């Protein structure tokens, strides 16, 4: 399982692993892939700095990446507006009423009141500034192309820039902006995702950007067979996310038993694509929380970043309650195959072994 991206990044396998857990990201890098730490959860630049220092010291000198959430166009919030004041009272009342109906208890006084500020453009820029003081080899943006000046800043520091795309036209726009690697994010994926399934999207984007731009297949990838399929569609590697929620190392980020119960019992049809998490279409586990937002009397989700600020405290309360019937969790359709909790090293070993067995089988079918 070796492609030009392995040489470009100094990794053994072209398996890129997005995760909000530094423990998972470091373990993936140590196992030969490229762990990519999601930075959106960091409100405090000093906390991110400490976390990346830990990554520097716990990856055995192997490379890693970071992922930010940054719109290309600079929104009003960087001009001094209080965005929280733009959240309608009716939306706040709906959230409070829904939590009460679902039996979600409040948090202790003083806990969980601050929204996840990493969704704000200005905070995402600070994430890039902090990352450049450490040794990541890649900065990825979950919202497509970062601003051109940020791309140039990363290139000047010797980093590659990746951006997610849900359609060929988006991928071409990213390339024109200077993005180095395109993540073809299929409809099956957890979190932000577009309208086109991976089987169609990956070759469409590969053909659109041409042979000189590496493409990572993403969406519904959680086995060696699926990695083989993505490479067969023209990708040079895979971008994975949901499968790392089911690892032992992820428990260092959250010990919430409700999360594990929820994904271990879920099938591939137990997800829904909705704007209630961030304001942009994202795939979540289907629970009583997502069902409440689908009712006729529910308000329309607010645009990013207002929706996340609206529901941030609710998510803290839901997660703290540990109720698997209510949990709010971004996860892809691959959740139906996440049937046990394993160490990261075992997941990596299984991905590689099944890939090799699949390719050998295909070679036999081709008579090679």
TrEMBL record:
Pfam families: NMO. InterPro entries: Aldolase_TIM (IPR013785), NMO (IPR004136). GO terms for molecular function: dioxygenase activity; nitronate monooxygenase activity. This is NAD(P)H-dependent flavin oxidoreductase YrpB (Nitropropane dioxygenase family). Keywords: Dioxygenase, Flavoprotein, FMN, Oxidoreductase. The lineage of its organism: Bacteria, Bacillati, Actinomycetota, Actinomycetes, Propionibacteriales.
